[in-house]
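Write out the 3D structure for:
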Amino acid sequence: MDAFEADMRDIIEHYILDHLSEEEALGNDYGPVAQLRESDVGDQPVSIVHYLYTRQAYDLLNRHRTKLPGELADELRVSATRMDELVPVRNRVMHGRPLRVDDPERAVSALQGFTTRHWAATHAILRRLAQDSTWEPAFATLPSPTERILHNLPEADYDETGLIGRSDELVKLKTLVQKRREAIVTITGEGGIGKTALALEVAYAIVDDPASDFDCVLWASLKSELLTVSGVRTIEKAIKDLTGATQEFGRTLDQSFNGSVAELADSLQGIRALIIIDNLESAKGDEVLRLYDTLPETATYLLTSRVGIGQIERRFPLGALQQKDAELLLRKMASMRGLRNLARLTSRTANEVLARLRFSPLAIRWYVLSVEAGREPSSALRDQAELIRFCVKNVYDALSVNSKHILSVLESLDRGVTFDELAVLTDLTIDDLRSAAQELGRGSLVVHQPDPQGGLASQISLSAAASLFLRTQPRVGPSAADILAREDAYIKSAERRRADEAARGMGPNVVRVRGPEDEPTAHLLRLALSHSKRGDTETSRALIDRARALNPDYWETDRVAAFVASSSGRREEAVTLYKSALVKAQAPEEKAIVAYFLAGHLARAMHELELALPYAVMAHQILQSGDTALSLGTYRVWNREFEEGQALLEDALDSTQEKTWLIALTSLVESWRRWAEADLEGHRAMNAFEKAYAGFNVGAEKINVGIFDGRLAGAVLESVTIAFRAASHRGVLNDEVARQALVMLTAIKSRRPLYRGQRNWTVFVRHLAQWLREGGSSSHVSGIAQEVLGDALDAGPARQDASVIGDLAGEIVSWRGRYGFIAHSEYPRNVFFHRGSLGSQGFEPRQGAMVLFRVEESDGDRPRAVAVRPLGASM
């Protein structure tokens, strides 16, 4: 550039100033240029051409092209674009600005376009460079003209290669700072990633921008260590804290400044200042906030830090170099250092090297310098301990124990995980986990990336440098084996959850997710259901609380909490939780699922059929599944809407899988029995017999083909019992009824082991015996009945006479010394008995004992047992 400017000065003096005065030649530029010459102190007169800027000299030549030789005039006319390339490079060179990576090539390429004989000095330099590309002329940087914006920016330490890459980041960050909408902008990233270089480049770009409205740019670096090939070196006279930075800022404004932050604030009143603090991790965040609070509002802050200050800052995360830029840096630096073996690596090998260097600018420079110092290239790659410690250690040492715990988890997993997954894989409270994740997020030891499966939750994983560093550190928290075992349990749980959702439909333990981000919470809820089933309510509720803290708007959390509350007898709490889940559920299918369970709770646990039915209707209208048809049909039957209920139960039989199909079949049998009971209450005994017989037919048909299910057999036996109760009424018994009675008794006799094992067997026997005593049916039917009764008597511990057949048999479920309760299928609330009701001398009641008893109604609403005696004892 110096040679090119010297050639232009010679041309002006030789062809223009030889016959024109300075004022005539320069025209409107004469005044400012002459004033600049007058301000320059010197004994000897100097031609005015030495005070022309490069662009001014070129424009002057163009204005006087008619005075120049033809070939030179033509060359200047077509070289305007070359000057657009040269002038920015010239300004960076002459003003000590950081060079761009392609500045040398651009300058040489542009200057090679000037080919006429008039550029002798330029041609001589180009020839010398062609002979030896490493040649450098003796050159002293010219003193810079007075800057428009006051600054104390240091010279860049990367001019050996220029700033490589970061062009997009440069534009975005410069725009962000100049808009001044964010008071504090912090460039964050791991050590050596290029934060300082980018901040300096942005600062110089702002200083050189004519449109910039900053009055001054003040720089201070708190960097105290420097990484060299031989190790980490302490920087002498480094600024150690913000007090030193304050002094640095003040002396830029006034060389004699030695005051406080408050005095610096007075000096900056009314001045639009850009305050740049480099390497801020060595200062505390609250110190920066005090500086921010004290300095005037006209100040804007650009910081670089590995961790950020954590408050009121707009972060600008800086990642690794792009692959092409990292490769360019490696090759250029190796070439300039004469390391041809590195400069000429194949692209594949270069990329492998760069990957192991994490595409980090500092790591690449350290590697090249290490090889230059004599280290074998592969050895330098293998042993980066000193480099890693320099980049990571001070950040790691400042972390809380919980944050180090999370890093150990990430190291064990060796993959990206979501925050919610960490809640499953650690025992930290959600608040502690959240604080630790935020602390790590401010630093550079973890990287954030989107869910590879397209989920809403982002993932965090160790940065490459952190991963290498942690190998040298003791573990914090559980062992790797414990973490991997938890991960395995979580993965298997998620697989089972998906299988359950596909296979079990509306099972209470099926937890549904809105997307992959809900899987960790679903895992916690499944654990809660498992503990609840085992009776561990305390652990179950703790897991639900953890799930709610983790995912508060997830409707399944309240749905599961409601189910656990209902199972534990907390009925009102369950209703509240189900209604909360209904509010949180967004999709119609989600609301329908909650409505299904809420209806079940209201109908079964609270016996509030009128309240349950609207929810059951809502669930079935939306889902139209066999499960919803079954539940709605069942509730309609309970509400004595028998025809509508049975139609729904028939639908359920047609559309459900094996387990639910069996429940639907049993419910259909029970619906006939309930309808028969309603007819008996209405004194419609014949109708009752017909419906009870229909229920028997539905169930016995399936039992006869090999479906041996206890609940189904119990429902069939109840229908038969109601049928014989109805047949005992006057006017019911006829030939058809007798035939049907024979069918029922024959079916029971043929499967007597199955039926005899049901809890309602004694009730059936009692009513059958009563029917016989009252003269029921023909001798043939009576004979079959007597055979069934004989089997019943043989099944007891002692043979019973006909008087005993009229008693009830049940199990003592509670004995409290003076009174107790007996369980019997006809009395859902159990039967009370007193010690004075015992009908057998020497009998001492105990829980679990089987007894015979009779029932008499008490003054209250609870039945009372009398003549209570051991099964097999006589009155």
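The radius of gyration is 46 Å.
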